[in-house]
């Protein structure tokens, strides 16, 4: 247990997801580590490398000194370049090396979280090179690890944990970005509303309201006469919001009512993760 109750739900969600990742990859043979995932340019090995590297940085380990190849098409900016270093440095590692490092990192990080004494408002450096509060950083680690657990499950054909503690954290993180998507990016008109109706293992309905000044907010109340109602299942919502698929690829999983042009604009900007 941490000293601060506000951190414990995120620590628990993180632990549930990262232990699930360890269980998923421990029995894999060497070739399965190279299986492609929906993360552009990343294999199963690369996702696990990213998870390991991110947790090592949260532990305060020094970043690897490593030069990236010039032909990595998915590395497009400084943030992706920073993230890729922890991935590329492990591309030559064997399956036993990967599982051993993952297990050791989980042990070290779990111990750190159990003994955490810092105030949740303490500013810490994150793997993306940005400072934020300890509480938000841990929340985003729980989010990131669960999302990558799902990436691995889809790549390996092992579905599950779509309603786990990490799923609830991910839902809340993704919904935080929805007002900007609707009001600013998609340009929903003032005094309008957009309803998102999600079914599946994690069911919820949210309304994004755009006020007279064009500012968006999200709440759980029902809206009468929304400009758009967008219905889909939880996994499709996750894949769209995390940029894993384009809307055209999952059109059969989407039900749209109302202003089609606005709905298309919302879906075009739906991805909120880097």
UniProtKB/TrEMBL annotation:
Residues covered by the Mycothiol-dependent maleylpyruvate isomerase metal-binding domain: 15-153
Signal peptide (residue range): none
Gene Ontology terms for molecular function: metal ion binding
Residue ranges constituting the MDMPI C-terminal domain according to the UniProt record: 168-264
InterPro entries, per database record: DinB/YfiT-like, Maleyloyr_isom, MDMPI_C-term_domain, MDMPI_metal-binding, SCP2_sterol-bd_dom_sf
Protein name: TIGR03083 family protein
Organism: Streptomyces radiopugnans
Record lineage: Bacteria, Bacillati, Actinomycetota, Actinomycetes, Kitasatosporales
